[in-house]
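User: I'm putting together a teaching handout on how multi-component assemblies are represented. Below are the sequence lines for each component of a complex, exactly as they appear in our records. Could you produce the 3D structure of the whole assembly as structure tokens, so the students can see both representations side by side? Please keep the chain order the same as the input.
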Amino acid sequence: MNISASILEIAVVLLGVVIMLADLWTPPKYKSWLGVGSAAGLLLILAGSFFLQVNEPIQAFGGMYVLDAFALFFKRFFIVATMLVLLISVEYSKKFQSGSGEYFSLSLFALSGMMFAASANHFALLFVSLELITITFYILTSFLRHQIISLEAGIKYLILGALSSAFLLYGIALVYGATGTMQFDALRAQSANMVQSPLLLVGLLMILAGLGFKIAAFPFQIWAPDVYQGSPNSTTAFLAVGSKAAGFALLMRLLMSAVPDVALSWEPLLMGMAAITILYGNLCALPQRNLKRLLGYSSIAHAGYLMMGVAAMSLNGSGAILYYLSGYLFTVIAAFLVIILVMQHTGAEDIIQLAQLHQRAPGLAGMLALSMVSLAGIPPLAGFFGKFLLLRAVLEQASVHTAYYGLVAVAVIGVVISLVYYFGIIRTIYWEKQQLVADEIHVSPISRVVLWVCAVLMIYLGILPNRLMEAASTAVESLKF
Amino acid sequence: MESQLAQYIPVLMLGALAATFAFGTLLASAILGKTGYRSRIKDTAYECGMLPVGEGSARFSVKFYLVAMLFILFDVEVVFLYPWAVVYKDMLVEHAHLIFGSMMIFLALFLVGFIYEIKKKAFDWKS
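Assistant: Of course. Below is the structure of the complete assembly, with chains in the same order as your input.
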């Protein structure tokens, strides 16, 4: 037993429990301080994570749990993501009629699920951590329980989430039936000479379906726009960065550490999924007028770009995924915080609400424009460099399989299509003539800090990518690909 | 492998029979039924000659859901406690910390939930 390997998760769970208990004795006026307090606690845990040494992978709980550079990278990523989400939900929690304290502690429990997912080295832990994420998200998506659209989002997420869990579980059962093991290291040895076994392949396909649901890749993306639109804004941001990244962490660990031989023969399948996801997300985003729905479709498209890194099946591809996710995190958080701030009074979420934003709030307008530009992938921002790394990783593989050229072409077409709707938003902000009766926008100090952090990191990651690239490439080396 | 799978042929046959029966009945009632003379009165539910009154499904308090959820929580606790108590004596010899510590952690987390329920007045039927 090596419990100390999971010290970070234990700390996060304890923090969540403390916040939950503190909420019971906190008068309603001071509830938002619980959110700030939990973010501060996470900052301490993040600082503590730098004292962990992972030169060698540490296994715990009978090989179920592994702490290596890859897991640690994702753990830090999730902690940062949750910290930012908690801070923007402090801003948003005024909209909750009750239970904002629970919102913060549930976010922390979801974080612990994501952190366990990053370390999953066994199908049992994979499933349990995924359920911990999903079940907390059922509550987080339907948190505006007096709004029918939020309840609708919750119900849709619940039903489709249950369906995907069933697929995942059945797939795990079949893989266990075929190989007799659920532990990834043992599976790696077993699966090498079972590439042709139909039972194993069907099982892995079902697991791919279950994980595909989490990352909203085609053809498992149907839920995403409705859930993104209906959920509270802070939950939508959390879904886009946290839940999706957890899905990718599990997918990469599974495909590259557990069943690399099968995954190599699946390159065409993964390429196809990536290509269709990119086209689907971008084409469907074009006619959207609701800002959150548009970002929902755009997140599908980004899942497609990230799938390219998985389809490349190389260290560079995996490193690019880690880099891209980090850039995407700050971009999405900034975009959603601006949406929360601009739309908190009106309640409507139509793009037209952004008209003349640069006169009402030039800072917010610039921030939203910056994040749209980064999402579109224009240099010198983080989004550009991430896409560049992904495309480079895919092109490197083109000597193995000429179909990779097709994937690159599709990705470039997708980027061009996405320019239309991202710049449509920017056009609305700066050049839309329609004058709205709009309230004054008040930006709290916390939001100001979050926006500055996101903006600085978006630009920093675009101009000076070396530090993070090195961290990402050392992280993926522990995937033993 | 082949002979093992062959054992499942009766199951497959039973499944096929069930599907045939289910869809066959639906098909037969679609073809044979609904041809006679129908009226509103004929289509009402027959309740021993009494006229049906009110909704088909009665409304009941949402508190019952709360009770059901609390019941499941305590039920799950016991589900873990029983097998733990059964193996406790054997495991105490070698893995004393493991057997004792893991249950204490579980119960501590459970206690937190208990405090939460009390403070949220989940046990207060009247409010």
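A couple of points students might notice: Residues 30 and 92 of chain B are 66 Å apart (CA to CA). Chain B is about 70% helix and 0% strand.
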